[in-house]
Acetyltransferase (Novosphingobium barchaimii LL02), 170 residues
Amino acid sequence: MVEIRTEKLLLRKALHDDLGAFHAILSDARAMAFWYRPPHEDLAVTQAWLADMIEIAPNIGEDFAVEFEGKLIGKAGLRKFPTIGLIFHPDVWGRGLASESLRPIIDRAFTEHGLPMIEADVDPRNESSLRLLSRLGFVETRRERRTSLAGDEWCDSVFLRAHSPHTKGH
Ligand SMILES: CC(C)(COP(=O)(O)OP(=O)(O)OC[C@H]1O[C@@H](n2cnc3c(N)ncnc32)[C@H](O)[C@@H]1OP(=O)(O)O)[C@@H](O)C(=O)NCCC(=O)NCCS
């Protein structure tokens, strides 16, 4: 898997050693407020999630661990083409780091992987994610109710798309 350096970030392959840092994010109620499942209570849940991420085959997806100042701060990528997803530790929100990580990922999805479009599935209450995706050129295509059950709470979805600048007709 390639490594990508942006101005402030390193995007790299996820490692089993990232378990503690990922668990700190995935067990945080703020980070998980609009995720498709409740905060991870057990390290074993994060361990299984991380193992899935490490094992993604290159023809299925490309999901990056994101480091800032030598520390793991989140993940961003396409766990399964063509759907994009990201989660960052709340300590680093509001600094443009999530946007900085997504720009090269989106570019690679269109150029290296040749995807005609990328899709995002966002909880309609997740305003910061909707703002971020809209800034990066994503446009809402449809809404659906009760798409995921996070614990005992049904969540709705806004689906957004960004189209490849290399595909004719868009
Ligand atoms: C979604 C998520 C990654 C967005 O993080 P974020 O830090 O708000 O996103 P950005 O990196 O784009 O930062 C944008 C904010 O930083 C501010 N900012 C500060 N310096 C900036 C800079 N140099 N460049 C860009 N934005 C900057 C922007 O004004 C913006 O603030 P605003 O949201 O109040 O308008 C984060 O909220 C998160 O991890 N949430 C939990 C998981 C989740 O919901 N994921 C989405 C599922 S689809």
Observations:
- Residues 146 and 155 are 5 Å apart (CA to CA).
- The domain at 4-118 is CATH 3.40.630.30 (Aminopeptidase).
- The beta strands are 4-5, 9-12, 62-68, 71-80, 83-88, 117-122, 139-150, 153-163.
- The chain has four helices and eight strands.
